[in-house]
From TrEMBL:
It comes from the Bacteria. This is Uncharacterized protein. Residues 1-53 are annotated as: Disordered. It comes from Meiothermus ruber.
Length: 177
């Protein structure tokens, strides 16, 4: 491409910027009023903000876990329930009872950060709204409970079908007079 010689008309004329036609005014046909017949929507039409989530305490979490485990373990007597509750809530080591440990780890606050608390339980808003990690954990918990139930059923069948030992001792030993 050739450049024009110096001192020609191309150098003398400044570049002209062309702007598009101005936008239509509010009186043109293309203008749409965004307000409906009633006027602007007021803030009173908005749904109320949900109350803040009240986090669980460590004691709340341990108590809830205790009852879920008691139901799952099918404890048969009041003595078994009391022994399990005492051992579970006391912890394996006396210096590590679960409730204070959960409080120190701020597990209740961590659950509240995901929308789970005393005033808002996981299934109140629909399971699909739970965080993915919690849905996986709940699914694994349901599977674990199912495995446990299946194993208990097998143990019950084995216990029923096992031969009863003789009342006087072993069948190999002769009775002594």
């Amino acid at each position: 491409m050739q450049q024009p010689p110096v001192g020609t008309a191309a150098e003398a004329e400044p570049a002209v910027l062309r702007f598009p036609d101005p936008a239509p005014s509010s009186t043109d046909e293309g203008f749409q009023n965004l307000e409906d017949d009633k006027g602007e929507a007021s803030f009173s039409d908005l749904p109320p903000e949900p109350p803040p989530i009240e986090p669980f305490t460590g004691a709340d979490l341990v108590q809830g876990a205790t009852w879920m485990l008691i139901l799952g373990l099918r404890l048969q007597t009041q003595e078994e329930v009391e022994a399990f509750t005492r051992a579970f809530q006391g912890g394996v080591l006396p210096m590590l009872p679960p409730a204070p440990v959960l409080d120190a780890l701020k597990v209740g606050e961590a659950l509240a950060a995901y929308g789970i608390g005393k005033n808002r339980l996981p299934l109140q808003g629909g399971v699909e709204h739970l965080p993915p990690w919690l849905r996986i954990l709940l699914g694994a918990g349901v599977m674990a409970m199912s495995v446990y139930g299946g194993m208990r059923a097998v143990q019950e069948i084995r216990a029923r079908s096992a031969p009863n030992p003789p009342a006087g001792g072993s069948a190999d030993e002769p009775a002594q007079a």
